[in-house]
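Pasting as-is:
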Amino acid sequence: MASTGGAEVLVASNRGPVSYDLREDGSLHARRGGGGLVSGLSAIGPDANAVWVCAALGDGDREAVRRAAGGRLPAGDTGGQQVRMLDIDADVFSDAYNGIANSVLWFVHHMLYQTPLEPVFDAEFRRQWGSYQAYNRAFAEALAQEAAEGAVVVIQDYHLALAPRMLRRLRPDLRIGHFSHTPWAPPDYFRLLPDDIAAELLSGILGADHAAFLTRRWADAFVDCCHTVLGPGIPAADPSSGGTRIGVHGLGADADFLRKRSHEPDVDERMRALREEIGGDGRKTVVRVDRTELSKNIVRGLLAYRQLLDDHPEWRERVVHVAFAYPSRQDLSVYRDYTAEVQRVADEINSAYGTAGWTPVVLHVKDDFARSLAAYRLADVALVNPIRDGMNLVAKEIPVVSDEGCVLVLSREAGAYEELGEDAVVVNPYDIGGTAEALARALAMPAEERAERCKRLAEAATALPPARWFLEQLEALGG
C-alpha cells in the first residue's frame, strides 16, 4: 500500500488523546485525556511530524470524525497534536473491544477465568474474532496511509496485537514497535486459547521489529509462549540475525505533574472534605484508588480490612479505609456484578463495625481525580493488592505525592513489585489473613522507617517517567 501521508512518527492505540461529547444542540465538546502516551508524544516536540491514530469510542467521537476532513481532528481539540480517529463500524468495534479484547485477551493475560465453566471458544467467538481482525486491519491500513517512507510506528497494547504483522505486509519499509501494557500469560494459561488463535496473536506481535513489555517477567512469559506455540528459536535469540527484539520499559510516575497538580486548590478542598469524612483526631488511613476491574482485587482488600478489625480490635475507631472504586466496563455484566459486590461488602463492614462517630469504610464510586490526589496525600498506608497487573501506576504515584510518607502494601503479582518490592510490605493477593497482618504491620510502622521507605519508593517509582519511557521505545527502533 502506497503512503499518502508524510508522518515520521506514528502512535496507534485504541483510545486517543481526546474524546467528544455530542450535546443536545448538536455541538461537540472535546475533552483531552492524559497518561503516559500523551506526555510521551509531547516530549518529541511540535516539529517531529507525528500522527496519533486511534478509534472513535462513542457517538460523539464518530460525529467528530464525520465532520473532520479525512478523520483528522481539529488541532485546537487535541492540544496541537495531529490525530486521525477511525470511525470503525460500531458492531465491529463492540465485538473487537468488548467481545475479544476485554472479555478474552484481558482475561487470559490476567488469568481471570473460572475454568470449570469458561472460556467457551465456540462459533460466536469465531465470529467476534473476525471483527477483531477487521479492527486491527483498519488500524494497519490507516498507519500505512499516514506513514512516510521509513517512518517509526509504535503500536500500543492488547487491542492491537495483530496490527504489527498486518502493517508489515502493507509497508515493509517501516520500523514498527509494539508495547504490551498488560501482563503476559505463561504458556500453560495462554494455551487455553485455540491453537490457531494463540499462534496468530504471537505472530501478530512478532511482525514488529521491537516488542516491549513493562517488566522482565512479562517479556520472558511472551518468549516462553513463542517457544511453546511457534517453536524453539522464535523469536531469534540473536536479534542481529533478524526478527523481533524483545525489550523492557518500566513506565514510571510523572513526578513533576503529580506534585504540582496535587497542590492545586481543588485538591486542598477535597482534602478538607475527606478529613471530615474520616473524622476523629489522629485517625490513620488505609487508601486504595482503583477502577472496579476484576483484576484489582478490591473485594479481597475489603475482606482483609475486616479481618484486621477482627484480629486487631485495638485499631477499631482508629483507622479508616478510604476506598475509591471507580466503575469500569459497566457494559459487561460481570463488571456490573463485581461493582455491586464491592458496594455490598463495604456496606456490610460499616453495618457490622461502625459506630456513631466512626465509619470504617469511606467508599466513593464517582471518578474524581482531584479527590484521588487528596487521598494520595493523606494516605498512611496504600493498599495495592491486584490479582495480576501489568504495572499499576497507583503503587508508584502514592509514594510520590504522600505528604508524610506512606507504607505501600503491595501484591507480589503487580508489575510494580519488580521495582518496588524491596521497600513495600509484600502480600499474596489471595491470602486474606496475610494481607490483614500486612496492614497491621504497616499501620504500626514507626514514622522514621515509614518516611525512609517512602522516599526510596518515590525514587524507584520515577526512574522512567512517561516522556522518557516513550522516547526509549522510539530509540529502540532507531527513531
